[in-house]
Design brief:
The chain starts with 5 loop residues before the first strand and ends with a helix. The protein has eleven helices and eight strands. Helix 2 crosses helix 3 and helix 4 runs antiparallel to helix 7. The relative contact order is 0.16. It has a single domain, classed as Alpha/Beta hydrolase fold, catalytic domain (Rossmann fold, 3-Layer(aba) Sandwich), CATH 3.40.50. It has an eight-stranded mixed β-sheet with strand order 1-2-4-3-5-6-7-8, sandwiched between helices. About 5% of the residues have low confidence. The chain is globular, with a radius of gyration of 18 Å. Helices cover about 40% and strands about 15% of the residues. By secondary structure, the protein is α/β, with parallel strands linked by helices.
């Protein structure tokens, strides 16, 4: 079996197809004999320009705990591009459509896991249909309470990063900048990411999703998604990385603590071995927190 399970396709409300891979949970094909049943399905939402492939280490660590689904947003991996603008609201609607599809197959309720820009996406999707959400785990998420995300200097960094990424994609060199991430993946997922994850089309999608960041985060700051009693865990990285030095890291983690403090049921975890790429730099810490929520929300 592929490290990420079996492929599937979900259709959005306007007819686009989203590619996903589902690794079976307890009681499914390949699950340990005698594993418990009835656990929520874990759905993994990536950051900017991140396809399904980098979730493989987390999926493997959740074997015997819950079924996991990693998917490609429109324009990433094996999902066709979206001709429409890509504001945060549209990304959350697409995730909602994927959950509709999975629910129609008998899967659910869902634990949503969002990394980086995936954090706001899963919060919006959860607030739209809270009755089907068993919990949220945010991995080093973008958060509107962090003033730095509105700074003009960050917009400049985004523009520079987009231009450099496009140049490297056109010359076939972009994958070299992500060797640590690729080295952390099983061979099949790494091969697919090398083929699909560093293309010109991927960088165009990144640019489209960056197009309304300030407006999107301003809207969330003015009207935060209402999560009610949905359990929320935020996993913050501790290690610095490119573009996230000590001062930035401190501000980002403070915003994570703020988000947890606003939740009815909240937990803040510092992942000592993680940099911003938590799913590959410290998948053990992330999987532990997902497992904790899954087991809390599973039938006895």
């Amino acid at each position: 079996m592929h490290s990420q399970g079996e492929p599937g396709r979900a259709r959005t409300r306007d007819g686009r197809e989203l590619f996903y891979m589902r690794r079976p949970g307890p009681g499914g094909e390949g699950a340990p004999t005698g594993a418990p049943t009835g656990a929520p399905t874990v759905v993994l939402e990536g950051g900017l320009a991140s396809s399904r492939s980098y979730w493989a280490p987390v999926q493997l660590r959740l074997d015997g705990v819950a079924a996991t689904v990693a998917y490609d947003r429109s324009g990433l991996g094996r999902s066709a591009p979206d001709p429409a603008p890509r504001p945060l609201s549209r990304l959350a609607e697409d995730l909602g459509d994927l959950l509709d599809h999975l629910g129609g197959l008998g899967h659910g309720p869902f634990v949503l896991v969002g990394h980086s820009w995936g954090g706001p996406i899963v919060r919006l999707a959860a607030a739209a249909r809270p009755e089907r959400i068993a919990g949220l785990v945010l991995a080093d998420p973008t958060d509107e309470s962090c003033d730095l995300v509105f700074a003009p200097s960050v917009r400049r960094q985004e523009r520079i990063g987009q231009a450099v990424s496009m140049l490297l994609a056109r010359t076939g060199l972009l994958a070299r900048a992500f060797r640590p991430m690729l080295d952390a993946l099983p061979a099949d997922a790494a091969a697919e990411m090398r083929e699909e994850g560093f293309t010109v089309s991927t960088i165009r999608t990144r640019g489209a999703e960056l197009g309304s960041v300030v407006a999107d985060l301003t809207a969330m700051k003015e009207n935060p998604p209402a999560l009610g009693g949905i359990p929320l865990t935020v996993v913050s990285a501790v290690r610095t990385s490119t573009g996230m030095g000590p001062k930035v890291r401190q501000a980002v983690n403070a915003s994570h603590a703020h988000r947890v403090g606003r939740a009815e049921v909240g937990r803040h975890v510092l992942a000592a071995d993680a940099d911003h790429m938590v799913p590959t730099s410290d998948p053990d810490a992330l999987a532990r927190e997902i497992r904790r929520i899954v087991e809390d929300r599973s039938p006895a």
